[in-house]
Amino acid sequence: MNRKIFLISGPPGAGKSTLAQALAQLFNKSIHIECDSLYNMVQGGYKKPWEDGADTLISLMQNALASQAKIYLQAGFVVIADYVWSLREIYCLFNQIGHENIFYPIFLLPKKAINLARDCNREYRVGSDRVAEYWDNYERWKDKFPKIFYDNSDISASEMAKNLIKEKGFNHRELKLFLNL
């Protein structure tokens, strides 16, 4: 059985959670795991993800995601998760979750001005400097991996979700070759 997992990444304010929710609505059995929520469950010892010493909390969050994803995949659910991941982190998650699944790595990268404006309009703003820093990092990867980068500046989340489910995902071997890891 081909079990699907979508991992949606991009800078803060890129539209990851909005796309994940739209995508989840298109499947009979799906779960949207919002990794910001997993990360923010920590109370004592909390650190912002970009602060020194946050690596342990990020690792715990990713382990929790992998565990939840396995449970839901085995029950026949499509898993959709979102967070600000690097390519290597996504590949490591795919290794943790299991080789028998079909993977959909999705990197959202709207136009920079749109991304900055979206962050300003959110309840929990990250701030222009940090968003711009993340955006610049993703921009550097975009030319090397254009197949998994999407400019969602001028498309609704629901329309983009409909387009994404038509695409072919990667099996583990294909993803490893694609990312050249």
Q: How would you summarize the topology of this molecule?
A:
Elements: E1 3-9, H1 16-24, E2 30-34, H2 35-39, H3 55-74, E3 78-82, H4 87-97, E4 101-108, H5 112-120, H6 128-142, E5 149-150, H7 157-164, H8 172-179
Parallel strand pairs: 1-3, 1-4, 2-3, 4-5
Helix pairs in contact: 1-7, 3-4, 4-8, 5-6
GO molecular function, one term: hydrolase activity
Protein name: Nucleoside triphosphate hydrolase domain-containing protein
Pfam family, one: AAA_33
Characterization of the model:
- By secondary structure, the chain is of the alpha/beta class.
- The protein has a single domain (3-179), classed as P-loop containing nucleotide triphosphate hydrolases (Rossmann fold, 3-Layer(aba) Sandwich).
- Helices cover 47% and strands 15% of the residues.
- It has helices at residues 16-24, 35-39, 55-74, 87-97, 112-120, 128-142, 157-164, 172-179; strands at residues 3-9, 30-34, 78-82, 101-108, 149-150.
- It is globular, with a radius of gyration of 16 Å.
- The two termini are 26 Å apart.
Spatial strand sequence of the major β-sheet? 2-3-1-4-5
Supply Rg: 16 Å
Which percent bin holds the helix content? 40-55%
- CATH topology annotation: Rossmann fold
Oligomeric state: single chain
- Helical stretch count? 8
Provide the residue-averaged pLDDT: 91
Largest sheet entry: 5 strands, parallel
Given the C-alpha coordinates, what overall shape results?
Answer: globular
CATH architecture group name: 3-Layer(aba) Sandwich
Strand content: 5-15%
Write the H/E string, N to C: EHEHHEHEHHEHH
Looking at CATH, the homologous superfamily is P-loop containing nucleotide triphosphate hydrolases
Given the helix and strand composition, which structural class is it?
alpha/beta
Q: Which regions are unreliable across 5 or more consecutive residues at pLDDT < 50?
A: none
CATH top level class name: Alpha Beta
